[in-house]
Amino acid sequence: MDHFEYVGGAMLVEQVPMEAIAEAVGTPVYVYSTATLSRHVGVFRDALARLDNPLIAFAVKANPNAAVLATLAGMGLGADVVSGGELLRAIAAGIPADRIVFSGVGKTEHEMRIALERGIFQFNLESEPEAEMLSQVALSMGRRAAVAYRINPDVDAGTHAKISTGKSENKFGIPYDRALASYAAARDLPGLDVQGVAVHIGSQLTDLAPLEAAFTKVGALIGRLREAGHDIRTADLGGGLGVPYDPALPVPPSPAAYGEMVTRVTQGWNVRLMFEPGRVIVGNAGALLSRVIRVKEGANAPFVIVDAAMNDLLRPSLYDAWHDIRAVRPAGARVASNVVGPVCETGDTFAMGRDMDRVAAGDLVAFMTAGAYGATMAGTYNSRPLTPEVLVSGDKWAVVRARPPIEALIEGDSIPDWIGD
Ligand code: LLP
Question: Which of 69, 219, 220, 293 has its C-alpha lying 20 to 30 A from 266's C-alpha?
């Protein structure tokens, strides 16, 4: 459920007309709804209500905007970060360090140092060499790092290959069969305090069965680790719950169904459970608002050329992802359309032959469910400035990231004086 609704023939975000935002800020622009964010946090939290003090650490990579993070911090969420940059952004937005978990296969010594200085809750380690490096860094600072190993459970998450992380051939985690040996080695590293187990098998999961299979393996491992004398106090079950993108497809499992499964599977684990949801919190809370530049004849369907492009919303070209495309002021007619951006690549295509509202030059369209992995994956390809972002709450709204002037792109480069010598 979201708060983008048609009232009087045009789309509102909460109480603000999308047209007013486009008029004031220009397009393309990402628009986020606070009411939708808080609704999703509430639904996710309610789903876990029977667990004892779970830590919900929002996956910052899904949407690192400071205003979004501050909103989530205000609702008590922690953060799952995967770089020093995300860590500092989360802290700057008011997320307390003791609610932050640091994931990722390539943490550098510098990033480890920053995280140790801030006193984060847990590092999720992904390899033995990483464990050795973290131990050394912690010792050099006179500290011990609280760690979990991320287990690769060799489970097929059944999602797009580029966002599947839990198969043995993926780069993530330590092999399930090596876990006891890796934990034994970690116990001997004096800079580490081994406190938990972690798992994350992929994103946009539309079936609970692979998650349940992975969690069941984690539960069995916790038992074996305890038998081997490890004091396991946390289990991080990652993120991954899918959201509805295409209204024609079955709705993914609800947070309530996910919470019921987790509550059942983790019974008796006797750990503090941690979660790293990203998409399910912010996905439906955002839309990318864009204006039609012109409509051009196509062989099979008209090309609707919009002013958003693959650099603003990469998901369709990278994962063949489906985003609902709606006219902000639908005229009533529908027509099969090819929706494309201005970037000079055939991959700059949002939809082919899509049955959608008929639109004309100058009309506004909204790409729905763009709050997760939208602005955060934007780039400046074709020298297009980064997309601005707006946050709405009720009848209030604010630009929470301004559109940079093109001069910033030009001035960012420098020309050495020996060129042309
Ligand atoms: N935890 C870890 C360790 C992760 O790698 C991820 C996502 C999450 C949590 C959050 O997953 P979520 O709840 O959002 O599914 N750019 C892709 C998605 C990449 C996800 C990467 N990892 C997309 O646009 O679909």
Answer: 69
